[in-house]
Write a structure and sequence with these properties.
heterotrimer; A alpha/beta; B mainly alpha; C mainly alpha; A: alpha/beta; Rossmann fold; Alpha-Beta Plaits; 6-stranded mixed β-sheet; 10 helices; 13 strands; C: 12 helices
């Protein structure tokens, strides 16, 4: 494995070494090789891409058909003790419905080897803002509350590594914002947080690094901006605002760095064949025409555009 | 040890959910009614006959089947197995705790019927210790059935159906036909312990042994071996097979 | 720009074909019931048990015919049409123990009942279709081996094929009647239990356990020496169809009801009562489901 390859990080906490998983004739995950380190990493992909399978392989619930998964250099299926540093939130809504939230989290704390499960559970429940409902059976909770109980159960033993499969499912906007803030904070504390989600703008808020999967294979790894810059076959769209958009647009279209322009009110949407070249040329052209440019920003450096590009043909 | 206890308590609580537990207790107590209502001259035969041919042969195996296949089966069905296995807990600890809890639950479910019939039998027959044989047989059968059915619940989705085939086809029909097969019948293993401890000539009960020699020691040894193999097998499944 | 709404044609095309109505919906439920119980369009292992039972029941009848053909006149030694119900008695009961929960339980536990009822179906249509699926399957299971036996014995009869048929025309109403009685009692019981118990295996075990335990209790208690003891014979659910079978075929079998001194018509009443009560319990359960 090359340390220079963007799939791999300098201080890996999770290492996925040429892992494949098949169920009979169906290949769910194929030759995935990458590593995940401290910070928040987003795992993206359309339905059926293999994200949940990959997360289950990481947590030892599934055995790889080929390859290895290592957590801090240890295979979790060979040595379950390493799972003491892992907190896992599964995608489905499964909980022990008859237990109260408090008892549910305490149970998880006990199994995780926490010294004082009662105190730890109370703390975890406070973190997810479930204290008021803590003594009600989890089976009576709404989807969002159940999700928070699961997150509390995953956090109760203060794990180094968090593996979260759609952790924001069912949460209302306030709860989502709260949980996103929590995951970002945990990532900034140096923990390894791996989050799978469909909600791109939320992943964008949380994750500094993205792993994109499609059809069971790795599609891309890296931060959003770098990934976008690699998409050289698709021009980037630059938004430019100025008081005389038509004059400026006419001048820009003559430059070799612009492949197309669209005018909307006082805004120019410029298709930049060479964004760096356009960035150099724009101030020169604007000064020559004596036009004041009030805004310049990339329009499609969003995760959504990256995601659409990566899975667009499928 | 703490993890063992926590898992065992969680499993037992889940298996003893009110409606199911009440139904199973009622089913395993039906024979006590018979002993209560038996004519004076038939109480001895009724006690032993129904304890063996109704309680040990059908009611307890069905109650044990429903309980034991649910031990792991419900965890798999309800996708709560990750809460046990994505933890720094050894697979042997998980398998042992679940099996231990299952044995305990089967005993708890089967005990009210045995106590009721023992009290009634003791009063009507003036034999205070008459219930001992049934209690020991219950313990032996509980361990045996847990050993057979717990891994079944971990392996198969339709474990209860496979267990029903074991009870109604293997134990009731095939194992009756040959002594070698009878030795593989859990309820007959329990019966060997029962006959060893019960006083008096037991008539039809002795016939149900299908040629097996009575003996508490042999019965205990057999189920102990079965238990060890069962826990080992469950541990192996947890280590080697996909759990989601 | 003004605030106006426009409807954009996004290519949606409504269904323009025939709408087949409630009857077709009911038939679809029946067909789906067959598939579930027989494991059709499902993995191979879900076919093993039902088809093994079916094969056993059918082959047994064929075997008796073959024995009759090979070994001469054994008509008195081999089971007749009436006795055949006893020969195979455990097998249809086992089949029903599994079929009834398979038809009812998954729809409840997987939350698809509301999908059924969002179609032009009422709950009574749904339950009727499920009962029709079980009923038609079980009647086939009872009747097909009997037809093999009937035609086989007719073909081997010294009176000739049509001679045998003419002399045994009563079989044509007796066998279906008795089969219907077996179906009514066991089918309604199995369905009632499956309506309340949330797991297939548990429901099957409950039904089998209830039948066996009730039978044994009835056998012992009905012979006890206290006032009214003989009325416990009514609990021998498994035996009531047998009593009616003996009555219809003129057989002289030993049954708990007979030993308790009850006339066969009482078994008919019990079968009817159990069927009606089971139906009421099923309706009570399903009426309150969302």
């Amino acid at each position: 494995m090359s340390g220079l390859d963007a799939r791999f990080v300098a201080e890996p906490r999770i290492t996925i070494d040429e892992v494949s998983k098949w169920f009979g004739q169906k290949v769910a995950v194929s030759e995935i090789a990458c590593s995940i380190g401290p910070g928040v990493t987003g795992l993206l992909g359309p339905n059926g891409a293999g994200k949940t399978t990959l997360l289950r392989l990481i947590t030892g619930l599934l055995r790889p058909s080929e390859g290895h998964v290592l957590i801090a250099g240890v295979d979790p299926r060979q040595d379950p003790k390493i799972l003491g540093s892992v907190g896992f939130v599964a995608e489905d809504e499964s909980v022990y419905g008859r237990l109260s939230a408090r008892k549910f989290v305490e149970f998880n704390a006990t199994l995780a080897g926490v010294e004082d499960p009662v105190v730890a559970a109370a703390g975890a429940i406070d973190i997810v803002d479930l204290a008021e409902a803590a003594d009600r059976p989890v089976g009576e909770f709404s989807k969002g509350m159940r999700q928070r109980a699961k997150v509390a159960a995953a956090l109760v033993h203060n794990p180094d590594i968090l593996v979260l499969d759609e952790p924001l499912n069912g949460a209302d906007p306030v709860q989502r914002a709260h949980l996103i803030e929590l995951f970002v904070r945990l990532g900034s504390e140096g923990r390894t947080v791996l989050v799978s989600s469909h909600v791109l703008h939320e992943v964008e808020r949380m994750a500094s690094r993205i792993i994109a999967m499609t059809d069971g294979r790795l599609a891309a790894v890296g931060d959003v901006r770098s990934l976008r810059s690699l998409m050289t076959d698709i021009p980037q769209t630059i938004r430019i605002e100025c008081p005389e958009p038509r004059r400026l647009a006419a001048a820009l279209i003559e430059s070799p760095y612009t492949s197309g322009v669209e005018i909307e009110g006082s805004t120019i949407h410029a298709q930049a064949a060479d964004p760096a070249g356009l960035a150099r040329a724009l101030p020169i052209v604007a000064r020559q025409l004596d036009i004041v440019v009030t805004l310049v920003e990339p329009e499609d450096e969003s995760l959504e555009s990256v995601f659409r590009y990566l899975i667009g043909g499928r | 040890m703490r993890a063992f206890r926590a898992i065992a308590v969680n499993v037992a609580r889940r298996l003893l959910q009110r409606r199911v537990a009440i139904a199973l207790v009622l089913a395993t107590s039906a024979h006590a009614l018979v002993i209560l209502l038996a004519p004076a001259g038939d109480v001895f035969d009724a006690y032993h006959g129904f304890t063996v041919l109704l309680y040990l042969a059908f009611a307890l195996p069905i109650a044990a089947l429903v309980t034991a296949t649910a031990a792991f089966g419900d965890e798999k069905r309800e996708s709560t197995l990750p809460y046990l296995v994505v933890k720094p807990v050894g697979r042997l600890t998980i398998a042992s705790a679940v099996t231990f809890a299952t044995v305990g639950t089967i005993v708890l479910v089967g005990l009210p019927g045995v106590i009721a019939s023992s009290v009634i039998g003791a009063i009507r027959l003036d034999e205070p210790a008459i219930g001992l044989a049934a209690i020991v047989a219950l313990l032996v059968a509980a361990v045996g059935y847990a050993a057979v059915f717990v891994p079944l619940g971990l392996l198969f989705e339709r474990a209860t159906l496979a267990g029903l085939a074991y009870i109604f086809v293997w134990e009731s029909i095939l194992a009756f036909a040959a002594t070698t097969l009878a030795a593989s019948s859990i309820w007959r293993i329990g019966l060997t312990a029962y006959v060893d401890l019960a006083d008096g000539s037991l008539g039809d009960v002795d016939d149900a042994l299908a040629g097996l020699a009575p003996g508490l020691g042999g019965a205990a040894a057999k189920v102990a071996v079965l238990l060890g193999l069962s826990v080992g097998f469950s541990t192996w499944i947890l280590k080697r097979r996909d759990l989601a | 720009m003004t605030d106006r709404a426009i409807i954009v044609d996004r290519g949606y095309r409504p269904y323009e074909g025939d709408r087949l109505g409630t009857g077709a919906a009911r038939r679809a439920i029946v067909r789906e019931g067959y598939r579930r119980v027989l494991g059709l369009r499902r993995k191979a292992r879900s076919k093993v048990f039902p088809w093994a039972l079916i094969a056993f029941m059918v082959l047994l009848a064929a075997l008796f015919v073959m024995i009759q053909w090979l070994a001469g006149d054994l008509t008195d030694e081999l089971p007749g049409h009436g006795e055949y119900f006893d020969t195979i008695s455990a097998l249809p009961i086992l089949f029903m123990a599994l079929a009834a929960p398979q038809l009812l339980v998954p729809d409840r536990t997987q939350g698809v009942l509301s999908v059924y009822l969002s179609r032009p179906l009422r709950m009574i249509d749904y339950l009727g279709a499920k009962a029709a699926a079980l009923g038609s399957l079980m009647m086939s299971l009872y009747l097909v081996p009997q037809v093999i036996l009937y035609l086989g014995l007719a073909a081997l009869s010294d009176d000739g094929f049509f001679g045998y048929l003419g002399a045994n025309l009563d079989i044509l109403w007796k066998v279906p009647t008795v089969a219907l009685v077996y179906l009514a009692l066991h089918g309604s019981l199995a369905f009632a239990i499956a309506s309340y118990v949330p797991r297939i295996g548990f429901a099957a075990g409950t039904y089998l356990g209830a039948v066996i335990i009730a039978n044994r209790l009835a056998d012992f208690l009905s012979g006890a020496d206290f006032a009214g003891a003989r009325w416990f014979a009514l609990l021998s659910f498994e035996q009531h169809p047998r009593v009616i079978r003996d009555w219809v075929f003129g057989l002289d079998g030993r049954t708990i009801m007979g030993s308790a001194g009850f006339d066969p018509w009482l078994s008919l009443v019990v079968v009817g009562a159990v069927t009606v009560l089971s139906g009421a319990l099923i309706w009570a359960q399903y009426r309150r489901l969302p």
